[in-house]
Amino acid sequence: MGLRLTLKPFERLIINGAAIRNGDRPVSFLIENQCKFLRESEIMHESGADTGCKKLCVTLQVLYLAEVPAAAIELFYAQARDLLAMEPSYAPYLSKIQNEVEAEQYYKAVKLGRELIAYERNFLDPHSLKAHAI
C-alpha cells in the first residue's frame, strides 16, 4: 500500500534529495515504495536558519535525506554541544533528538527538532514567556 500525497499549486517537495515544485494546479500522486521526503511545510531553509536551534534543524534535515549521514551526524553533535553550553534548558529536547539519531530514526529527529524550535521561540520571546506564566 502506497502513500498518497496531494500538492497545492506551486508547492515544493523533496524526494530522496530531488527538489520538486508543483505546477499551477493541485496534483495527487502515489508513492509506491520506501523513500525519504519532506513537504514544503516541513522544510527549514538554510537562509531562514537564524538561530542555533534552527541551524540544528537544517542539519537534521540533511541527516535525514543523506544516503551516508556520517558527516551530518558529526555536525549534529557539535551543534548540540554548543546549544547545550549556551542554554542548559535545551537538554531534554536535545536528549530526545539524540536518542532518535542513535536509533537511526532520522525523520523522528526532524520532528523533535521542530519542538526544540518552538521551545526556543518561547524562550527567546519575552511576550510568550509572560503569556505562559499567567
Automatic annotation (TrEMBL):
Please give the Gene Ontology molecular function terms for this protein: mRNA 5'-UTR binding
Q: In which organism is this protein found?
A: Methylobacterium brachiatum
Alphabetized InterPro entries for the sequence? Flagellum_FlbT
Q: Which Pfam families match?
A: FlbT
Q: Which domain of life is it from?
A: Bacteria
Q: What is this protein called?
A: Flagellar protein FlbT
Protein keywords: Bacterial flagellum biogenesis, Cell projection, Cilium, Flagellum, Repressor, RNA-binding
Biological process GO terms, please?
A: bacterial-type flagellum organization; mRNA catabolic process; negative regulation of bacterial-type flagellum assembly
Query: So which residues are the signal peptide here?
Result: none
Q: Membrane-spanning residues where?
A: none
